[in-house]
Every structure is written in C-alpha cells, then in structure tokens.
Amino acid sequence: MKSEDGKFYYHWVYFIDLDISLFSEEDKEKFFIRNKKYKLGSPCIYVGETSKHPKQRRYQHTGKYKKRGKRSLASYWVKKYGKEGFSSRFIKSGWTRIKMSATKGVLKRIKDKAKKLEEDYAKEIQDKGWGAWWN
Question: What domain range is 24 assigned to?
C-alpha cells in the first residue's frame, strides 16, 4: 500500500564486519562489556540503521563525506575498525529493507521499527557468540 502522496518509505538495517584485532585496549574493554557472550575468534559485526540506501550510508562511514559545515556522519567503530563493503555472514545481501506506506507524520514509527530491528539483530548475533556493536 502506498502513502497519501503515492510514495513508499524505506528504512534499512545493514551489517559491516569489524576487525577486532585492530581494537585499541580501551575499545576492547567497551566491546567486551557489551558482548559478554563473545567467543574469541568469532566474527564481529556492526549493525546500523538508516533511511538512506546502505551503499550511500557505507560511503558516509568512510569519513570522507561531511554535511556542509557539519561533523562527519561516520560511526567511530566503522570508520576505525570497519572492513570493506558489507557483512554477508548474517544476511546474504548485507542489509535488509523495511518498506512501509506512511504519511510523513508517521515516519517516526518507521525509524522506531528500524531501531528496534537493529537492536534485535545485534542481540541475535550476540546469542551466537559473535560480537555486535550498534548505537
């Protein structure tokens, strides 16, 4: 079903491999506090959500993209420890799309659903004994 203005609205949840061998001691400490079930040697994945296409958001994570006069949109974890491309370990494509018909007044519901899905995926990854980071 389409919205009143005839458009669909999308939000995406995406996955990027992190290289835990590069983590600073301080970041390892933060990581292990959040990932108590992590099994050494298992994958570590950043889980993010965005209204942009994941490829555009991935480019923003490089730190090369900045909004005019604003700070970088890169996630600290992805910019510093992210591997190239997307992770296909958890979902084959490296991302999943949430498609909803909505008016602009209910776009917040779509974002809230994506945020919840982001956290749910991260916790599912952690339950496998893998590492997960999300904001």
Answer: 8-133
